[in-house]
């Protein structure tokens, strides 16, 4: 297990949904690879010419096509094929949708409660 995996405290669930990253007036359609209560991993768009010192808004459209999870994110790691973001801010409605989505995909309810406690603290 790598140091990166050891530091990870939130379960990541594979999820495919229309996802958009925006920075000011610029937006990139990206392929969502997975997400957690604390962030997301996306396939690196081409071309990728964002200002890496600035935050992003992530928009994830859920299955019904009407529900959207929106969060302010910061790029935490960049690899040739993928970008990892950590959530800086998420509104209560988006958090409720994300919580339900993760809850449906995590088999261990004890683990889910631990993650929620850790997120709140």
Explain this structure.
This protein has helices at 3-7, 92-105, 109-120; strands spanning 13-14, 18-23, 26-36, 39-43, 56-61, 68-78, 82-90. It has 121 residues and is of the alpha+beta class. It has one domain (3-120): predicted glycosyltransferase like domains (Thrombin, subunit H). The chain has a 6-stranded antiparallel barrel with strand order 2-3-4-7-6-5. It is globular and about 40 Å long.
Rg, Cα atoms, Å: 14 Å
Question: Order of strands across the biggest sheet?
Answer: 2-3-4-7-6-5
- Name the CATH superfamily classification: predicted glycosyltransferase like domains
Total of helices? 3
Indicate the CATH topology.
Thrombin, subunit H
Output the keywords.
6-stranded antiparallel barrel, 26% helix, disordered N terminus, 121 residues, 3 helices, 7 strands, Thrombin, subunit H, alpha+beta
